[in-house]
Amino acid sequence: MNAPLPYDQLRLRHLAGEIITNVRELAHAGWTPATSSNFSRRLDDRHCAITVSGRDKGKLTEADIMVVDFDGKAVGSDNRPSAETLLHTQLYARFPEVGCVLHTHSRTQTVASRLYAPQGHIRFEGYELQKAFHGNTTHEGAMDVPVFPNTQDMPELAAWVEAKLDEQPMWGYLIDGHGLYAWGRDMAEARRHLEAFEFLLGCELELRTLKP
Ligand SMILES: CSC[C@@H](O)[C@@H](O)C(=O)COP(=O)(O)O
Ligand SMILES: [Zn+2]
C-alpha cells in the first residue's frame, strides 16, 4: 500500500480551485503571456501548492497544480514544478504569515523592470494606493520596489532576494526584463498587492512620457 500523502488533500483541492479561478482572471488581463508566470499557495508549514512548469496559465486545471516541500522537491507527483519554485518556497520558509505568491509578466511590469534596472529600484511616493500594501496606512512616505537582474540561476536570484529582505520590508519585487513577484497572507491580499504594483508601475511609466 502507498504511504499516505503528508498534506491535507481536501485543502489542496480547495487551494487549487482558488488558484485556477484567480489565475484565469490574471491571464484574461494579459498578465501571463505564452505560458509565463507561476502561482502558489501555502498548504501547511512544510508544503505549498504550485503550478506545474510550462503550462498555459490561462487554462489551468487541477492537474496543473502540484505540491512541493520548502526545498522545492515534488511531493506525491511526477510533474516538474515551476522553474522558479525556489522564489516561492523561500518566502514560505522565511515568513510563516505568507500564504500566497503570485508571479506575472505583464507588459507594464516588464517595461518598468527594463527602465529601472540600472538604479536597482523604483520608488513610489505620494500615492494613495500605497495604502493597498499591508502595513501602510498613509500615502506619505516612500516605498522602494527592488529590481533584480535576471538570471536562470535560481539559487543566485533567491540569494539576492534574501539579502534584500534582510534590509527592508517588501511585498514584491521586479526582475529585469522578466516580471513581478508579489505575495500576501492569502490570495486576496496577494492579488491586492499585485494589482497595486501594476497600477503604480503604470502611473510611473505614464509620468515618464508626460514629464520626461
Ligand atoms: C515562457 S518563458 C517564462 C518562464 O521562463 C518563467 O519566467 C515563467 O514565468 C514560467 O515558468 P514555469 O516553469 O512555467 O513556472
Ligand atoms: Zn517568470
UniProtKB/TrEMBL annotation:
SMART domains: Aldolase_II. Its EC number is 4.2.1.109. GO terms for molecular function: aldehyde-lyase activity; methylthioribulose 1-phosphate dehydratase activity; zinc ion binding. It catalyses: 5-(methylsulfanyl)-D-ribulose 1-phosphate = 5-methylsulfanyl-2,3-dioxopentyl phosphate + H2O. It comes from the Bacteria. Its cofactor is Zn(2+). Pathway: Amino-acid biosynthesis; L-methionine biosynthesis via salvage pathway; L-methionine from S-methyl-5-thio-alpha-D-ribose 1-phosphate: step 2/6. Binds 1 zinc ion per subunit. Keywords: Amino-acid biosynthesis, Lyase, Metal-binding, Methionine biosynthesis, Zinc. Residues 17-205 form the Class II aldolase/adducin N-terminal domain. One of its GO terms (cellular component) is cytosol. InterPro entries: Aldolase_class_II_sugar_metab, Aldolase_II/adducin_N, Aldolase_II/adducin_N_sf, MethylthioRu-1-P_deHdtase_MtnB. Pfam families: Aldolase_II. One of its GO terms (biological process) is L-methionine salvage from methylthioadenosine. It is an enzyme of class 4 (lyase). Zn(2+) binds at H103, H105. Belongs to the aldolase class II family. MtnB subfamily. Catalyzes the dehydration of methylthioribulose-1-phosphate (MTRu-1-P) into 2,3-diketo-5-methylthiopentyl-1-phosphate (DK-MTP-1-P). PANTHER family: 3-OXO-TETRONATE 4-PHOSPHATE DECARBOXYLASE-RELATED (PTHR22789:SF0), FUCULOSE PHOSPHATE ALDOLASE (PTHR22789). This is Methylthioribulose-1-phosphate dehydratase. The gene is mtnB.
